[in-house]
Amino acid sequence: MNKPRILVVEDEADIRRFLRLALEREDMTVFEVGDALHARIDAASRQPDLIVLDLGLPDDDGKAVIRDVRGWSTAPIIVLSARESETEKVAALESGADDYLVKPFGVPELVARVRAQLRRANLAGARGQASALIRFGDIVVNLATHEVWRSGEVVHLTPIEFRLLAALVRGQGKVLTHRQLLIEVWGPGHALRSHYVRVYMANLRQKLEEQPARPRHLVTELQVGYRLAGIVETP
């Protein structure tokens, strides 16, 4: 099996070295660059399996790099940044990032995020359009027939509840912001009504989670949005 190829984009040399050593210890091949220009060049020429990107680059904002890369690549992008405001997180995710990790961070969390995004990308690539069946925990979702089962029993979802669940399923573990979910599920005219997502997410958790107050799969991310955790292959 080929080693995952990771591109690290970080302007501080000490942090770049720290990231490279941490990821190489996990049997990954790491390339590193220190500015937006070389980030774009290496993303195109090396075609990494995943990009770890700092937003505060010396020659351009990292969000612009994300938007450019997203024009031709679906490789997961994990943002590392000292910018911890909700506005910055939302802007990065809506530019096309898949996850956001605030500095300082621990190696175990970084590695876990990287591996989760690599699994998501591999699963999405292997599945392609071949199967409409998705499983997480004891839940099975049929995207084609709009059917949902929990421990073999049919779960009745309203049309909006199913559309919200389907949006999270299609995200394959990516963090989706409130705005992204509102536009996909309710339409552009509802992009500012974030309470819609909270209400319907609570309904989904009541129907699908073993402990709705401590969800394992329908996960809140940093008051920015939601993601679906634990997707696995369905035979």
Automatic annotation (TrEMBL):
- SUPFAM superfamilies given in the database record: CheY-like
Taking every annotated instance into account, which residue ranges of this chain make up the domain Response regulatory? Answer: 5-118
Q: Does the keyword Ribonucleoprotein apply?
A: no
PROSITE patterns from the UniProt entry? OMPR_PHOB, RESPONSE_REGULATORY
Q: Known Pfam families for this protein?
A: Response_reg, Trans_reg_C
Q: Please list the residue ranges annotated as the OmpR/PhoB-type domain.
A: 131-230
The reply on keyword DNA-binding is: yes
- Where the record puts its DNA-binding region(s)? 131-230
Recorded superkingdom:
Bacteria
Q: Which UniProt keywords apply?
A: DNA-binding, Phosphoprotein
Residues bearing the modification 4-aspartylphosphate: 54
Q: What is this protein called?
A: Response regulator
Instruction: Give the organism the record lists.
Output: Dyella halodurans
Phylogenetic classification of the source organism: Bacteria, Pseudomonadati, Pseudomonadota, Gammaproteobacteria, Lysobacterales
